[in-house]
Amino acid sequence: MKVPIAVLAAVLLLCTAVIEMAAADQDPPTNVSAFCKDKCAVRCSKASRQKRCLLYCGICCTKCNCVPPGTYGNKDACPCYRDLKNSKGQPKCP
């Protein structure tokens, strides 16, 4: 019984998508500094998706060494954090 190459490619693509979605829901990276962890804990304290907020805040803080004050807005206080975009051109940082 031969399996068409297109079916195998589709299964591989589906598996890759599932793995990427699972990776996006992981705990925040462990290489985030104490400064970033503390600032992101405050920034994400009211977020409905804590893990995702902490993950992206940690990434942004590590790149910019800055997190805006408060739980929402105030991004003008940290232009680097404000200007980081995802692959769709939307703001990356919470």
From TrEMBL:
Signal sequence residues: 1-24
Tagged with keyword Repeat: no
Chain ranges passing through the membrane: none
UniProt keyword Signal present: yes
InterPro entries given in the database record: GASA (IPR003854)
Keyword set, alphabetical order: Signal
Protein family per UniProt: Belongs to the GASA family.
PANTHER family (UniProt xref): EXTENSIN, PROLINE-RICH PROTEIN, GIBBERELLIN-REGULATED PROTEIN 10
Stated name of the protein: Gibberellin regulated protein
